[in-house]
Amino acid sequence: MKRNNQIILLVATIAVLAVVGIYLANSTASSAQEADSEEITVSAAASLTESYREIVKDFEADNPDIKVNLNLAGSGSLRMQIEAGAPIDVFASASQKHMDILDMKNMIVADSRRDFARNSLVLIVPAGTNQIENLEDLDSEEITKIALGNPETAPVGRYAKQGLEEAGLWKAIEGKTIFAENVKQVLVYVERGEVDAGFVYMTDAQTSDKIRIVEEVPVDADISYPVAILADSEAKEASQKFIDFVTGPEGKRILEEYGFKVE
């Protein structure tokens, strides 16, 4: 009996040691994998929120050794973060202007810059309202609050102001405008009925059933999205892989699903 107990104890000890060994091996492998992994930070325009979240998910699945930290905000705000020294690897802007500013300051890798998507500007109103049926209706006395992005920092606001100027309406409605930080905030204002109308990108309007698209607003500008690697990035190879994914077949497919135009 004593011998049997010793055998059982020995077998149990071996089993425990085996489990511990497997755990330590897996832990070591996991630590090694983490040590070999690389992180990049991608700053992207707010209007890219939904599409870039999916792009990042699929990119990480294809590149398990690269972790992407996604930073979303208005293009102008992101540009100022970069100018202030924020550790960003990739910048995807909703405006050529903000990328041009960084380029002139030698803050991007010029050869990495690519245009990857295009969009359009639309006038929207809360769902169920019928006070506004065209751009000219914004000049009505009944319309008192019109939301648009801050033209100084949000490209969607600059495009809206330009469209209104081209239509000869800016001076008439300027006093009714409420500036938002980015296109997503404009969309929320209109969804909640806090304003009579707002200007957003077509891709953002298509994400909501709480608004109605009145019309597409002509703008004498190409609403195109450039992406580039930052000159100070310490992960340029991984960053280039991300840009290649965005501009490749899978990235284009995702962007098209969210309403962007790609070539």
List the helices and strands and how they pair.
Blueprint: H1 2-36, E1 38-45, H2 49-62, E2 66-73, H3 75-83, E3 90-92, H4 96-104, E4 114-118, E5 121-126, E6 146-149, H5 155-166, H6 170-173, E7 177-180, H7 183-191, E8 197-201, H8 202-205, E9 211-216, E10 224-229, H9 236-247, H10 249-257
Parallel strand pairs: 1-2, 1-3, 6-7, 6-8
Antiparallel strand pairs: 3-10, 4-10, 5-8, 5-9
Helix pairs in contact: 2-10, 3-4
Cα shape:
elongated
What is the average per-residue confidence, as pLDDT, rounded to a whole number? 89
- First and last CA, distance: 80 Å
Quaternary state of this entry equals single chain
Given the helix and strand composition, which structural class is it? alpha/beta
Question: Which fold does the CATH topology of the largest domain refer to?
Answer: D-Maltodextrin-Binding Protein, domain 2
Task: Output the CATH homologous superfamily of the largest domain.
Answer: Periplasmic binding protein-like II
Unreliable spans are 1-35
CATH class of the largest domain: Alpha Beta
Beta-strand percentage range = 15-25%
Helix count from the secondary structure assignment:
10
Portion of residues in helices?
A: 40-55%
Q: How many beta-strand segments?
A: 10
In the CATH classification, which architecture of the largest domain applies? 3-Layer(aba) Sandwich
Which value, in Å, is the CA radius of gyration? Answer: 26 Å
Q: Order of strands across the widest beta sheet?
A: 2-1-3-10-4
